[in-house]
Structure formats: C-alpha cells, structure tokens
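thought: fold this chain, then report.
action: predict
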Amino acid sequence: MAHGIIPSHPIGTLSGHAYPVLNYLEGTSQVFKAGDFVVGASGYLTVCGADPVLILGMALEDAHNTTAGLYTIPVALALETVLFGMSVYHATAGNNLIEATDMFLLCDIAMSAYGKWVADKAVVTTTSRLRILKFVEPLATVSGIVAGVIAATYRQIGFVGA
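observation:
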C-alpha cells in the first residue's frame, strides 16, 4: 500500500475522546494552512518555524493573511494526551514506510517539500518532538500515517487542570 504525503491532522486523545480546541487571534500576515503547527506569540497565533521551540497545537483552519486580530483560528491543543496524525518520512526511500520499530520512536517533525508536516524518522535525537504511539495504517505502508504526541519539552502549555 502506498500513497503520497497527507496533511497532518489531530486524531483524538489517548483515551479515545475528542481533542480540546480553543480559538486564538490570528497574527499579522499569517499564511499557515489547516494542519500546520502553530504557537502563541505576543498574544497572537503564528505558524511554527522549521524547528519549533514551542508548539501550542495544530491550526484547524487556514490563516487569512491580514491584519492581526481580525480573525480567530480554532486550534487543537498539543496537550500530553492529544494525538496528531501525519505521514512518516525518511530521506532514504527504502525507510520511508511504517516499520514495527517505529512504535514508541521519538522522532522529529518536519515541513516536507510538499508543504505538509511529517514524522521525520531520519532525525531521532534528544531534541526530537514527536513520540509515535499509534499506527493509523498497516506496517509497510509507504508514507503511511502514524499518530503521536508532542514531547513535553516542546508543548507551549502543559497539563490544563483545575
């Protein structure tokens, strides 16, 4: 089974419930798309850079490329139990598929050449941002979809409890 790289998207939570969503004011001249990782900065929502230091969550709507504060964007929050789905990627074509050893892998997230976030299996370091916890598609699926949580160090907000 094979398909192209799919847009990243929130899957749900570890307990099977809906993921939490909050609305935030869009920053100036933002051009992110639904499925892009975003961060809160100076009171506004902005797209994450290539190697995000912090991740608030994932935008659920496209930005409007206009003046700050005119629009609010719903965001699936990157809390400790929220799963984000994305295609696996590896620069070596033969490794660009779901393998059993990917389960529990701490890998990086990267913006692909196709403008979509991927689980980058080529970057497995102490600064990696995604812990793979679920295979959405079967083993050996090329560019297959996996789901994982954002590592604690990179979540902009932690546990939101009373």
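thought: worth noting. The mean pLDDT is 92.
final: tokens above.
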